[in-house]
Amino acid sequence: MANHIKGQEEILQKLHISQLNPMQEEAIATIKKNTNTILLSPTGTGKTLAFALPLLSFLDPNIQEIQALILVPSRELAIQIEQVIRSMGSGYKVNAVYGGRPMSKDKIELKHVPAILIGTPGRISDHFANERFSKDHIKTLILDEFDKSLEVGFEYEMRGVINQLISLNKRILTSATQGVEIPDFVRLDQPNTVNYLKATTSKLEIRTVLSPSKNKQNTLLHLLNFLGNKQGIIFCNLKDSINNLSTFLESKNIKHGCFSGGMEQKDRERSLIKFRNGTNQLLIATDLAARGIDVPEMKYIIHYELPREVEEFTHRNGRTARVSAKGTAYVLKWKEERLPDFIKHADLENISKQAERKPVFWETLFISGGRKDKISKGDIAGLFIKQGKLTKDQLGDIELKQDCAFVAVPATLAADLAEKLNNSRLKKKKVRIYGV
Predict the structure, then answer these.
(1) Does residue 152 have a pLDDT over 80?
(2) Is residue 354 part of a domain?
(3) Does the pLDDT value for residue 201 go beyond 60?
(4) Are residues 248 and 108 in the same domain?
(5) Buried b / exposed e across 41-64, counting CB within 10 Å, b at 16+?
(6) Distance CA 88, CA 10 (A)
(7) Could you tell me the pTM of the whole model?
(8) How far is CA 78 from CA 111, 123, 173, 338, in A?
């Protein structure tokens, strides 16, 4: 195996993090000392790193079996954790498995058994039932966003998976929500709780925007023009609402991405990539995007459709005003609509002042080669700078996947670059490059 257990300093340097925040420091110390830990901290405060750093110290480099299982409620969260742990460069193999991706892909990756396995309850349950690897060495169980994983829909599978883990000696549960009942089958005896839910003073403002008509589309358009080019998420309750809103924004030439459970995994992933790299400044999403997805800090979010539960309201709002940053949650309300009791202190916003919406600077290009072709981000940067004649400032985010990559380039140059660099060689592979 590769060189294992780099020091914490070395890992943080690699992640370009100068120091851990107080929650992470306390969580790491608690997890190392105790058998069972509950970590409660708001969305976006760095919980993944808080459990991943101590986790590495529990692994034995001489055991070629799965030693840690991380159960998550969504595919996006599985992918996000996999990326964080990979970028730590520990030398331990990590894989994420989840519904919606071909089982054949899982089987290929699991042939060379990872030390850390991340997955959604249904897919892990399937691998357990088919005995695709040994469970005997799984000593650490992490339930990330456990409040969501332990909801009724997952309970049967969660119970089945956890009951088969006979060698467990460490349990770590994380959440951004308090007061969730933990079922007996988790066997969480005398847990130590690290609670930072009240420690971070959120600077969230809640504002109401009145819509004269029941169809709020034109009011949303006015609000977006009032906000200008800031990046934000528009939350809807239904997939159909997302489709209708998307068609409307398209007709107004407003670039955006969509994100809901009804979309193909590949399309959801591309939506997030284009949102992260600035190609799209708006994401229209269901509550699936309120937690566990890796997107930048938002200046605002919009409740286009009113949330039905206080938890949805809290998680949506958690996408902005993180840690100590400021942010605004806009509640779009038809004038005849009654706000739920949990929406308080929501003053009216005057959106008559309209800002100018400038064209988006970035465009995303797809590259048909990835990590499995031994291609690195440096190789991609080299191609675009040397042959594409881009300056470093003109090269945006590069996201490298197992079998492909995405790169943000100036929108004005995207078509020329795609034409010029298509069929170039990266390492030994001839790659296709085109806009997505």
Answers:
(1) no
(2) no
(3) no
(4) no
(5) bbbbbbbbbbbbbbbbeebeeeee
(6) 9
(7) 0.68
(8) 19, 11, 15, 37
